[in-house]
Amino acid sequence: MLFLQLTFNTQNYSLQEPYYVRCIKPNEQKSPLLFNDERCLHQVRYLGLLENVRVRRAGFAARIHYSRFLQRYKMLTHYTWPNFHDGTEEDGSKVIVEHMGFADDVKYGRSKLFIRTPKTIVVLEEERRKLLPSIVLLLQKVWRGTAARLLARRMRAIYLVMNCYKRYKARQFMKKVIETFRDVKHSRDLGRNRAWPPPPHVLLGFTAEMKKMHNRWVAKTVLSRIPKEEWEQVRIKAAAMNALRGKRSDWGYRRKWQGNYLASLTDNNQTAPFVSASSNLKNKDKFNKVLFSSTVVKVNKHNKCADRAILVTDKYIYKLDPKNVFKSMSHINITEITALSISPGTDQLVIVHLQNGNDLVVCLTNSSQENRVPEFVGVLCRHWAVTRNSELKVIINPILNCQLGKKQRHIRIEKSQVSFPVFVKNGEDLTLAYP
């Protein structure tokens, strides 16, 4: 009810003609009987009441300067918004008045516009009030666009400075790299022991790639000094080094690795029977090449030792009897291998772990007392990497575990006064005594 009453009163007031009352202070003592002529005249002149009276007497309700009128009401027509450039301020005021249809209600003075009825001012103010929100939105939009452009300009400047600084740091880093590795081609270690300068964060990935490139260049340079027929031996030694991980100090990398030792007279005085037996096996099982061969001492699930020979090919591991013209006793498919176990010492014990739970436990032997376990490991790891593109698991421990006849055994290693390696039963476990 109160809202309806207020709405009615507001509509009623808008239909009335407003009048203005000017108040003059007659004295400073707030006395009802004291009238200061000089002070009252000063207020009348200051407020322009005499001029207002003359204007009202001439029949005009208000007067306003052309500049102020144009500045206040220029948004009412698109001819004067946002700025009027087609004449003087009086011409701009005339455009507004004629556009609003108030030409009969105004008179034009030399510097001011005279308006007869207050309703004209009310209409002008109402139209102006309606347009102000859209103008405010326009100003907000323009300012937001300006602020966004300023921010974008600052961000572009920041990124430009950052990019220039990054390029500067990259150039400085590359200068240090060039200075560090300038004469690396003529150095003995080919720069492998030289410290790389610390790279900026943005070049960490690039620096890692450069290090890989340097390592490849070093490898290529080293290989160029080695005859091409020895490259495969180098790859096998690299596979052995990677598998041993520095846990076996003496791994025979300085000597030449022959692989098929039983085909050489220095290790085997019965080369002809061995070559004949290996050829027969090759024709029968269709393997491509021999990777490794050696005499061994083998222990079985009954804890019995026997002198045997092993022949490692790209498909099978053969157990041969050297006392019976290297007759094949059995063979193991190389895909059945799951891991290798060796010790960190100088013994020649090798355990080939198999999927069937009956591991191959042997101790390599040779007349020259060479350490050939790393070569055996390197041959299998290299073949595993080439054929399966993965690493063969190699276990290095002082005490080794194995399965013989699907029973878990522990093998300890002891250096003894024996002249030949031998496996000795130690309760449920085994001990390898080697000279």
What does this entry look like structurally?
The protein has 435 residues and is an alpha+beta fold. Helix content is 42%, strand content 21%. It has 10 helices and 15 strands. It has helices spanning 2-14, 37-47, 49-57, 66-73, 89-100, 118-180, 204-224, 231-244, 271-285, 373-388; strands at residues 62-65, 106-108, 112-115, 290-299, 305-313, 316-321, 327-333, 337-342, 349-354, 360-365, 393-396, 400-404, 407-415, 422-426, 429-434. The strands form 3 sheets. It has an 8-stranded mixed sheet. Helix 4 (66-73) packs across helix 5. The relative contact order is 0.06.
**Strand order, largest beta sheet:** 7-6-5-4-10-9-8-11
- Contiguous low-pLDDT stretches (5 residues minimum) are none
Which geometry do the CA atoms define? rod-shaped
Write the H/E string, N to C: HHHEHHEEHHHHEEEEEEEHEEEEE
Mean pLDDT: 86
- The value of Rg in angstroms is 53 Å
Number of helices: 10
Percentage of residues in DSSP E strands: 15-25%
Distance between the termini: 117 Å
> Got a strand count?
15
Q: Give the structural class.
A: alpha+beta
What summary fits the major beta sheet?
A: 8 strands, mixed
Residues in helix, %: 40-55%
